[in-house]
Write a structure and sequence with these properties.
The chain is mainly β. It contains eight helices and 23 strands. 36% of the residues are buried.
Length: 400
Amino acid sequence: MTNKDIYRSLGGLDPELIIKAAPTEKAVKKKNNVWLRFGAIAACFIVALSAVILIPTMHADEPDAVADSDSGDRYNDFSIISGEYGIVWPWEYKTVYEKYFSINVDGSEFVGRKRALPSSYVGEMLGTYKATGYDDTSDKTYFESFEAYTVKGVAPDRLIAVKMENHYYAFISKKYSPPEKLGGVLEAYSLPQYVELEGFSVNENGKAEAYRLLNDDEFVWNALNNAKNAEAADPIGWHENRGDYISFTVTAEALGVYKRAMYVTESGYVWTNAFDGEYLYFIGADVAGSIIRYAEENSVPAKSEPFNKTVAGKVVEITEGYILVDDSVLCKNPEDGITYKIMINDVRISRYVECGAINVGGTVIVVYEGDIDKKNGNKIFGAIDISEGIITSGDILIPE
């Protein structure tokens, strides 16, 4: 695989594009090289990785920097970042979609997007096919057969639904193959049906100058459909000279897409990383300009959203059913702290407890989906990840 192939397969996700996938005006502080230190770690296999997890800065004048919108100005001018580490989970601690990352359907390989699809989007059964999994800790390869289905309105050579443990998961074709015309993208993925264009950022001189919410996206999809004969262009190197643009956030349950991006540039291009790599089409400056003007004139100012919903703080209790996380350590006045009850109802959280990867007294960052049940003890039922956190003030680490 060449460097160009790797770049395309990753969707061109340099750090800036990862941030742009969830339009934001907040700064992100780069972390120091901090190694995770665990005590005895049961049977878990922990390795140092080069991957970096970035957490938005928690400034007092940016209450939306954390997902708990009621935080107001409680927080000090601190940042909390994830330690640089990785855990290679043994086979028994993995979710089914982490175990089986690839499936072969009639000679074509599809890879999991790690997102479940509502059954209402699932179409006809294609058949039963063999999926491949790999256990890093034992160096063993596993195979298991699963039923594969179409996704309604989506070309089955591009995206399918795979039934695993009574849930359907999106698997996308591993082959990088942008349609020759923009219309091919719109049709293959039923984009106007499945993607609601709402939040977008206005980007000038390489910076996000504003974040807005679109009133209605019908004009945008009609304009793109009228440009359906726009031809594909090579995205390699294009980003350095893309000029000013607006960036829509692209989320679609049916496609297994979460907060990817679609750019419309003043120079006449439309770009997205929502599929099997980067797709770039030249729609012309007139069409692109009409979309940009419409978006800016038919939208309202809004606060940017974090890429993930998060809460952070000190672990004060761990039981078989929940983890208590108190964010007083982040507050100007510790009495304003909130204690969150992280319910252990998902293997993605329970494995951290079982392996001793988090401990009482440690600082953690919890990623969750859904809402916080504030009427019943600030319960979080949708936690999907937890990691050790390090509090910083400027370039100084706050002692634990």
